Amino acid sequence: MRVLGIDPGSRRTGWGVVDRDGNAHTAVAYGTATANAKLDLAHRIHTIVKQVGEAIDQHRPEAVAIEEAFYHESVRSTLVLGHVRGALLVLAVDRGLDVFEYTPREVKLSVAGSGASAKEQVEFMVRRILGIRTPIQADAADALATALCHLHRARRPDTGRALGAAARGLEALLQRRGRR
Q1: 19 is catalytic
Q2: 158: annotated active-site residue
Q3: Which residue among 23, 95, 106, 109 is least crowded, i.e. fewest CB within 10 A of its CB?
Q4: Structural domain tally of the chain?
Q5: Which CATH number fits the domain that encloses residue 132?
Q6: Can you list the positions of beta strands (E) in the chain?
């Protein structure tokens, strides 16, 4: 399975393509889509989306995993990030790809074992898992981590169905106890 991970940003958006074959994970390609800070928001978003679109066209992932927006102290920053994420979501859907969203905490937990891991720990683990010997720019490392997070979760059976069955069983048990 091939997944494109995206770490969205309004000036730099990290992207990384990861293949999984059995238990082996391989970094196919990774980088950072950048836009000139002097451009207005619409043109920055267009530049970033165009670059990520080129990565999709070149590497042909089967799915996209994107990091959810975190709530920044600055409402404006959160809003701008939402615009970038929205444009990237539209790009992925336009290319016919399934989209999966993960919180930064889920990504860190999946790759580094703690939802509170520092960026350096995430980069270290991404490099270790993927066998990359050289340093990776932080945005690209986060994007690769997001792809790995999805690949780890995609291995699990449909937890939604299992949780639904467990909830129904618990509800039936509670109803039986309420009848006594």
Answers
A1: no
A2: no
A3: 23
A4: 1
A5: 3.30.420.10
A6: 2-7, 12-21, 24-34, 63-67, 98-102
